[in-house]
Amino acid sequence: MRIQREKSLLLMVDFQAGLLPVIEGGLQAIEEASWLGGLANLLDVPVWLTEQNPQKLGGSAASLLERLDDYQRWQKVHFSVMEESHFRDALAASGKTQIVLCGTEAHICVMQTGLGLLEAGYDVFWLTEATASRRSTEAELARTRACTNGAQAVTADMVAYEWLYRCDTPEFKQAHQHFLKPRSARPVHFN
């Protein structure tokens, strides 16, 4: 099953400024998520962000928001955003059935959200290098558990090239010019 941009939504869970400094692999996770988020904006794939109790954990990291042109933000108190009725209703109304999922912490909010999405019948694509926890072993276990229950582990490049589908379109040329280059050269800051 291929990821199709017309059916896709990119869901970024709790990339919050107060949490990211203690996340193992947090720099890579935010880099990959923001890179794919920029490409999603170019291709008109909706980007949704969640924030867990932002009064205590802070809002979404500025380094993520500054690289996104368009996004929708959802605040939550449940670890799984699928337990928030306003989110669940809006997702159903969007008509999107393929959810590309990433965020922190993998073993808590991302995994519970992923399991909730699977229970509701969505196709879930676990964006591996953009999903992290305080300890990498917990992130690995969360991915394994989500995938055992029906999610598919993917990379940002997999998603990007499936969304682009072919190399002879104006979107591909624009993406190639701005996004399809090595990502490790770009600095990332948490502030």
Keywords:
191 residues; alpha/beta; six-stranded parallel β-sheet; 8 helices; 6 strands; 42% helix; disordered C terminus
Structure summary:
This protein is α/β, with parallel strands linked by helices and 191 residues long.
Structure description:
Helix content is 42%, strand content 18%. With 191 residues, it is an alpha/beta fold. It has a six-stranded parallel β-sheet with strand order 3-2-1-4-5-6. Helix 6 links the parallel strand 5 and strand 6. Helix 1 (26-42) packs parallel to helix 7 (156-164). The longest helix has 17 residues, at 26-42. The relative contact order is 0.21.
* Outline: globular
DSSP strand tally: 6
Strands side by side in the biggest sheet: 3-2-1-4-5-6
Task: Tell me what portion of residues adopts beta-strand conformation.
Answer: 15-25%
Uncertain parts: 185-191
Number of helices: 8
Helix content: 40-55%
Mean of pLDDT: 92
Helix-strand pattern, N to C?
EHEHHEHEHEHEHH
Q: Which quaternary structure do these chains form?
A: single chain
Q: What is the radius of gyration?
A: 15 Å
How does the helix and strand content classify structurally? alpha/beta
The N- and C-terminal alpha carbons lie at a distance of 38 Å
Major β-sheet annotation: 6 strands, parallel
